[in-house]
Amino acid sequence: MSIDYICNMNKRLLLHIILFVLIFGCDNIKDEKQVPFEKLSSDVTGINFSNIITPDIETSENLFDYDYFYNGSGVGIADINNDGLKDVLFTANQEMNRLFLNKGNLTFEDITESSNINSKNKKWSSGVSFADVNNDGWLDIYISQGGPYESNSRKNLLLINNQDLTFTEKAEEYGLDDNGISTQSAFFDFDKDGDLDCVVMNENEFYGYDPISFFKKYENKSVLMENSSHLYEQKNGKFINITEKAGLLSPTFGLGLCISDINNDNWPDIYIANDYYVKDAMYINNQDGTFTNQIKESTKQISFYGMGVDIEDINNDNLSDIFVLDMASSDHVRSKTLMASMNTSNFDLITNKLDQHYQYMFNSLQLNLGNDKYHNISHQLNIAKTDWSWAGLIFDYNLDGNEDIFVTNGYRKYGSDNDSRIRINETKKEYNNKVPVEMKKRLYDELPSEKLPNLLYKNEGNLRFKEVGNNSALNDPSFSNGAAYADLDNDGDLEIIVNNIDEEAFIYKNLSIENKLGNYLKVRANGILSENFAKGTLYFDNNSRVKEFKRVRGYLSSVSDELHFGLGKVSKIDSLVVEWSSGKKEVFHEIDVNQTITVNEKNSEFIDDKKEESKQIFSKINDFIEYAHNENEFDDFSTEILLPYKQSTLGPFISAGDVNNDGKDDVFIGGAHKQNSKIYISNENGLIERNIKSFQDDSGNEDMESVFIDIDNDNDLDLYVVSGGNEFVNRSVELSDRIYLNDGNGNFKRDIQEDIENYTISGKTVISIDYDNDGDNDIIVGNRIQTRKYPIHEPSIIYENISGKFYNNTYNVAPEFENFGIVNKIISTDFNNDGWDDFIAVGEWTNIGLFLNENGKFRNINNESNLENLFGLWFNILETDVNNDGLKDYLIGNIGENSKYKTSMEKPLKIFGSDFDGNGTHDLVLSYKYEGNYVPLRGKECSTQQMPFISEKIPTFEEFANASIEEIYGEEIVDAYERKVTSFESIILINKGENKFEIEKLPPLAQSIPILTSETYDINEDGYEDVIVGGNIYNTEVETPRLDNQFALLLISDKNKNYSAIGPDKSGLYLSGNTKSLKIIDRKNPKLLVANNNSNLEVFELNK
To answer: Of 332, 349, 364, 1001, which one has the greatest count of Cβ atoms within 10 A?
Structure first.
């Protein structure tokens, strides 16, 4: 073989390799323009810090004996020598804290030894913060300490700056030698008396206790004080503990701390993210020296194991949002092996009996709705599960004007691993709690350990985030904890520094400026106090952006205290307004971008520029109607442990009609089991209840939807009420629907009809339709489930009206409708304008049924618009005409994207129903696709409770985590009842004519809620129908976050094919309950009625 031949072969091989890389390898190339970070080595920066942690099984310095052993430590960034360069301090648990002086150009000098920061009382250091405590113009350092030690060996450190790159420890002298298990602290002037006060966040000595025993400990107030976070007021240079007086005395597992003006009243508030079952604290400043924890009043749910916290505006609406991290695994196997179990009784104990909160093991992103109300949308943003996460920092890394999110990750030893936990407990029993050291060491070494990469979520605007760190220099698996950002090289973009366990710290240089990704503006504040919490507002291009000066955020760390605005392509700032906590302001006009502005509080003044508050669209009114829904007690989960949510709490529903022919809307509202239905007659003062004996007689039914309809052709409105619920045995008489005939004056009496009485089915929805064009009103009833056998559906029914009597004619006119599935909503409509009533049906685990009326018989034509494969958890349909083209469009309400469940066309969520263990009871299995196989969505523990054979067949959590549903349930899964969902998005079907529809997704804010109910009204009087949507699903199983938004949403027509969403801060539609039904009455002077499950009816009036 010749040399030339070999060379040519090598060239061809090289060419093939190059082509392969170009075609298949592009996704693996780190794109610095997309994620503009470069990792710098310690050789370049001079920063060689590592938080080395060494366990000692023979002492308390190990995870078995100290639950916070691997919680890591923080990093702080501040200019300690006033040279304009930001310096870096790392805290360490067992090693020495380290201080690095910024020498410029991202090089640092280690001045730890000469600075004397470890010269006195250095123990187990955790958090770091900065403040000019003695107000001499130089920043001092405060280090929070904890560790597995007695209280006298974990006092916090106050390092007073000697102005010569040395520090003197004076915590005891200042009264700040707090000896709790401190994690982080912050300085602020909470009482506006002109000096800095301090809050010290603490962990708790009583970890591992059950909730009842834990809270009983704090009947002893001195024990409570030792295990509370502490507030210190500065008086004459000394810090005094005023925790109890100020309202902060409460047990705490504090891991995340942020000071911010949460309620926008210009007084600093405190947010503490608590680990374990203690609810987070949102301490609102009462402006009188006290605070009140408003977490339950302001939020509907929070994270369970709260870790790091940051407060920043993620959607540019000038309202600060709150991001709290937890430890939910993004990977299926980890989620099943590390999943913490929760049962109904413990959940009820924590949420209700112990006055905690609805807490779920996921990150939470509380979207600020205004009016001190928040809405957790972490699942919608796909940031709910980031594994065992610590620091969550919100900042604009790429200067595009949107705030992004950086998350640190990793845990050194998984003490929560379920199989390890079982082995440890078995060993304790075997040795009667006296486990030999060697055995203890072996168990310790067997604990799983896994490095995980940190995450970077790019904010793409409009409530959309995308994880981009996995294809960048940030993609280093690690055990990362504290992190901070700052413009370390003063070029205008923000570097990232990360503190790691058992590995050198990460320093990431930001290349946004080098890559010309966007413009910026930095603002430095010279306040009377170093921690001033002033607010800076930029005005440009008819937009505004607000930021607040605050240093402590994320996890155990402190960031640069400059305001940093990414501006994208904005080239000129109209004005900058800086408002100090005193109310004084300083204003700058016509500002060039790409510079640093320095503001001085001494130059500020009081400026009267208050703008008149805009009037909200709706106002809440009282005394219009008295109604409260009272849900009966029934635990669906007692027999159906794996239910996704209760099937017995779907009501109430509102129907409106003129029942006495006086030209006014009267109202019927259904009741729960053992609660009377109610009818209200309109008069000039509101709605007045009328007692109806038949409603009292039928109070044993569970009312679903109803419809006013002239059944007997006597020119008044009769009433049809669907019966439903899950508390009844299948085929119970309580499941019969009911007909009530009207005497013409609004008095109703039960009418018994054989076909109606015979169908004892758990139903949901009903409509009036004249499907055969014979001039009388027929009806269609959408039914749901065989009771206590979710998701197995019952047949839905079309009743033909013959001389005032209803007869089931479904088989003859719409045979394919009988087996459609669980039906939640039907509407009658003429979607092709041919004069024959068609109908649309949707439900859970169904597609969208478009039933075309062909001379009195129906054919499902959803395949003509590619709707046959669009399966959802649909709850609502609304006819409208979004663009006034004369063709009817349809809003279809799904549960939205803010659910822990995820699905797609390629990987649909599936549900199976059968008696899998052959014990005579119904079982269900939720399943999703993972690495090509369908696996159980729910965990081993709850699955075993439903089907005990699982624990024998698959004994370990590791085996369960790696098993497919076929391997777990065998051949039975193949023959089981099976349904799927391919989308959770709510949509609008745009009618294109000729029975064709185009799908448009509703705006992102509308995707954050389940749309169970809707109404049309031209809100802005532009001649186009707008829509009001709402809905909640509170009664989810305990490991699935409730869908519990606090508002109804206005959708304003764009006059084309979609809507603009208006939140409650502008609409005024703040709701307080588990909303099931909306109804507008009196269209000339509109009133919006809102019916809530197990709560009071709410009424809103349109402001005209």
So the answer is: 364
- Which pLDDT score is estimated for 31? 59
Structure tokens, 46: 């001079």
Least confident of 15-19, 445-449, 935-939, 1050-1054: 15-19
Q: Are the beta carbons of 74 and 551 closer than 8 angstroms?
A: no
The answer on pLDDT for 684 being more than 60 is: yes
Tokens 């054979």 sit at which residue?
949
Q: Are 634 and 726 in contact (CB under 8 A)?
A: yes
Q: pTM for this structure? A: 0.96
How far apart CA 157 and CA 189 sit, in angstroms, is 20
How is residue 657 written in tokens? 């009609």
Tokens 């997309």: give the residue. Answer: 34
Other Cβ atoms less than 10 A from the Cβ of 683: the count is 11
The answer to whether 666 and 657 are in contact (CB under 8 A) is yes
Tally of CB atoms within 10 A around 218:
18
| Torsion 431-434-439-442 (CA) sign | positive
pLDDT greater than 90 at residue 19 = no
Q: To the nearest 10°, the Cα dihedral for 1020, 1022, 1024, 1029?
A: -10
Question: Which stretch of DSSP H or E encloses residue 549?
Answer: none
DSSP code for 960: H
**What span, in angstroms and rounded, lies between the C-alpha atoms of 295 and 752?**
51
pLDDT band at 2 (very low <50, low <70, confident <90, very high): very low
Paired tokens of 417:
């691993």
* Residue whose pair of structure tokens reads 């899998």 in the numeric block: 916
Residue at 599: amino acid letter: V
Residue 80 three-state SS: coil
- Whether residue 168 is predicted with pLDDT greater than 60 in this model: the reply is yes
Question: Does residue 28 have a pLDDT over 80?
Answer: no
Round to whole Å and give the CA distance between 182 and 144: 5
What's the token pair of residue 563? 């305001």
The closest alpha carbon to 897, from 571, 583, 464, 468, belongs to 464
Mean pLDDT of 516-524: 98
Q: What are 756-790's pLDDT values in tens digits?
A: 999 999 999 999 999 999 999 999 999 999 999 99
Residue 1101, CB half-sphere, CA atoms under 13 Å: how many? 11
The residue type at 546: V
Residue 664 burial (10 A CB sphere; 0-12, 13-18, 19+): middle
Of 684-693, 886-895, 960-969, give the lowest mean pLDDT range.
684-693
Maximum alpha-carbon separation in the chain? 107
- C-alpha to C-alpha distance for 496 and 474, rounded to whole angstroms: 10
SS3 603: helix
The H helix count followed by the E strand count for the chain is 22, 73
Residue 559 tokens, joined:
């960031």
Tokens matching residue 754: 């054989």
pLDDT at position 32, please? 62
For residue 652, is the peptide bond before it cis, meaning its omega torsion is within 30 degrees of 0? yes
Q: Distance between CA 539 and CA 525 in Å, rounded?
A: 18
CB 200 within 8 Å of CB 180: yes
Give the pLDDT band of residue 12 (cuts 50, 70, 90).
Answer: very low
- The region that residue 233 occupies, defined by phi over 0 for left and psi between -120 and 50 for alpha, beta otherwise, is beta
Is 478 within 8 Å of 500 (Cβ atoms)? yes
d(CA 1079, CA 1099): 10
Q: What are the beta bridge partners of residue 70?
A: none
**Residue 15: C-alpha distances to residues 1, 23, 511, 726 (Å):** 21, 12, 32, 67
The count of other CB atoms within 10 Å of the CB of residue 1007 is 23
Give Cα separations from 1085 to 443, 1024, 1029, 1062, 1102 (angstroms). Answer: 72, 18, 19, 21, 7
What whole-number distance in Å separates Cα of residue 182 and Cα of residue 203? 6
Q: Is residue 422 helix, strand or coil? A: helix
Give residue 13's pLDDT.
44
Query: What per-residue confidence (pLDDT) applies to 15?
Result: 44
